[in-house]
Structures are given as structure tokens and as C-alpha cells.
Amino acid sequence: MSASNTASAASSPDGVAPASKRKPWWVSAAPPRPPVKTIAIALFAAAVGLLVLAALTVGTGIPWLIPPMAASMALVVGAPKLPLSQPRNVIGGQMVSAAVGAVVGLMGHSLWLGALAGALALAAMLLCRVPHSPAAATAVIGTMSATVPGWEFVLLAGAAALVLVLAGVLGNRFNGARDYPIYVW
């Protein structure tokens, strides 16, 4: 927005520019598409991180690659400046949520308990200051699946998240986001 648009938006009670100053609804206000090089490097970094988890899964028979890890990888390389993408949030959020899933899973492995675990994981992540939205799904998986027992699941989630963060650090170095991570702890 120009300075005059900003001033008029700021002077309105809700902080929204008057209708005469806004773009038509059919004109996207979304950020522009990243350059092809940026997309290619993000693709490569995401593939490396997720393929390492797949190889660990095949090699150990333990599920290192679970769907929330793909969502975490997308945040780390696709939006590296977001707080949700920082190592503290990725690793901490995954571990806190896995712990919630493991504890709730002690009561059983039902759809209802899985839903409860996802909500409890959100609260636990916020309390621990490590919100990471994909990790709520880790809690659901930890509750509904008995593939990896209790605390092993917590360590597994943390180790898998660490692999993704390392892949993200390398990918973001090549992608011009040299300041990733913005903070670690």
C-alpha cells in the first residue's frame, strides 16, 4: 500500500482500507510466486529430508516417515522465516505432541482419543512455546497407532524432526535464506 492508503486504512476503525482503495476481489492479494530456482531448491531439500526418513523407515522397520513430517518439511523449506518453521518449534512441537499422543494412547487407540490428543497437543505446544501445526497430527497418530510404543515414539519424532531441520538448513543456505534458522532455542 502507498503511504496514503496506509493512512486511510489506519484511520478506519477496523484497520481495513475503504472499499474504494481495495483491489477488486478477483485480483489476488497473495504473495507472488517464488522464482523457479527457489522452488527447485525447496523441492530438492524436501526430497532429501523425506527420502532420508523413508530410507530409515525401510532400513529399521520403524516408521520414521509419517505424514506430519512431510507437512513439517513443507514449512521448513517453504516458509523458513515463520516461527512455526524454526528448529525449536519443529523439534519441540513434534516431541511434545508425540508425548501427548503416547500418554493419551495409554487409555486406548480410538478415533475419539485421537481427536482429544490433537487438541491436547495444541494446548501443550502453546504452553511450552513450541507451536508447530503439523505436530498436532503426530499426537493423533501416536494415540491411534500402537506401532511404536510410548516414549520411543517421542524420541523417534524428535529425531525425525531433527533430520528435517538439518535438510532445511542445507536447502535454505542454497536458497538465499541464509538466516535460517532465525533462532534455535
Automatic annotation (TrEMBL):
Keyword Transmembrane helix: yes
Transmembrane parts of this sequence: 39-58, 96-127, 153-171
Location of the region described as Disordered in the Swiss-Prot/TrEMBL record: 1-20
Record InterPro entries: HPP, TM_HPP
Signal sequence, start to end: none
Stored Pfam families: TM_HPP
The keyword Lipoprotein belongs to this UniProt entry's keyword annotation: no
Residue ranges, compositional bias (Low complexity): 1-12
UniProt keyword terms in alphabetical order: Membrane, Transmembrane, Transmembrane helix
Limits of the HPP transmembrane region domain: 31-181
Record protein name field: Membrane protein
Organism (species): Mycolicibacterium doricum
Organism phylogeny: Bacteria, Bacillati, Actinomycetota, Actinomycetes, Mycobacteriales
